[in-house]
Design goal:
alpha+beta; globular; Pnp Oxidase, Chain A; about 35% strand; ten-stranded antiparallel beta sheet; homodimer
Chain lengths: ~230, ~230
Amino acid sequence: MKILFHVTRQLSTTDRTTIRRGSARARTERSDLHATLDAGLICHLGLLIDGSPRVLPTGYGRSGDTLYVHGSTGARSLREAAEGVEVCVAVTHLDGIVYARSLFHHSVNFRSAMIHGRARDVTDTDEKLRALRVITEQLAPGSWEHARQPNKRELAATAVIAVDLAEAAVKIRTGGPNDDDEDVEEAKSWAGVLPLRPHWGTPEPSADLPAGFEVPSHVGEREQPA
Amino acid sequence: MKILFHVTRQLSTTDRTTIRRGSARARTERSDLHATLDAGLICHLGLLIDGSPRVLPTGYGRSGDTLYVHGSTGARSLREAAEGVEVCVAVTHLDGIVYARSLFHHSVNFRSAMIHGRARDVTDTDEKLRALRVITEQLAPGSWEHARQPNKRELAATAVIAVDLAEAAVKIRTGGPNDDDEDVEEAKSWAGVLPLRPHWGTPEPSADLPAGFEVPSHVGEREQPA
């Protein structure tokens, strides 16, 4: 099985010379990085705390070639990250299960972005507001205009870190299994892909909303995830 | 906004004393840990390589209170992890977006498991086969019986690490927003939850399957993700 995603730290050109149908491949286009990030909802932030690795799921957003990650100032991980420590941010889309004739060639289709860098604490109020806006657009597009924007106290209670998209890797796997020829010829097992897609369900209004408060279109007609 | 998941390293009892409706809460039941892990498809494995944090999406499985994570022996991260280094494994389900009256109280509903421990290299052939079986059951249930099982060469090319579920934290957030009273009274913005669920699509058979090869039930009738 090759269900570990092989993520290279540097964008590799040799990888391109060995692409087989359906293989995971490194993408070297910045547009692939942006598209993979923009299609996500949460990231996994990796950093060291007291010498131990920590992985935290959290919200993020992108502005140009800057990634913003946010959290509470009460969360120790974000306070640590704000001190300029090294971080690794992963955004992963699981697009399907690849069923092969052999278990060894079972795999998954995915889009994966991996960012390495040092976190910068966002302290400038204007940048912090811009960052919170792109983080909001990522998780809840339309809410920045619709909901009450953060006041001074709330802003102070929110930590935002920035990571440059300077060192990043993107890997995308699509297509069917790469079975061994003998297994294909034996034809004993089914082979193919079972696609996986996230879907928004029906909005569930809060019980304490005034009667007749309609679901706004940015929620009720939210575009399905890519 | 409280879209950072507050994951405590130790299961906390004081957390229980401050639960509000809809708040993220630490779960102290081992059954919650098992259920959160068993419902997942991939994990994010965090570890240190050359002093830098690395986060890798990969397949996993659970057997009792042991978590198995697998990959290629060619992948440096797994070779490093096999040397007994500290790892952090995160399994995250994003269950919905929580729209609040204020951006500050925007949140997400989620189930999150976080495992801390030292990786143990699985070298015993019997344990490795058992581990690969549970990893297969997690990602592609039914394939262990249906597809060709790994031969010696393939087994040797597959690395498996084990992590005890001794130090683990589970957090689950459900329900609607925790808005400030003034915002609820003003009633200017919609509030509620937009649920998110992954769905299996229609199986896509490999082009090189013999004509008439039917989709087996473990693929075509696979249970939708929880």
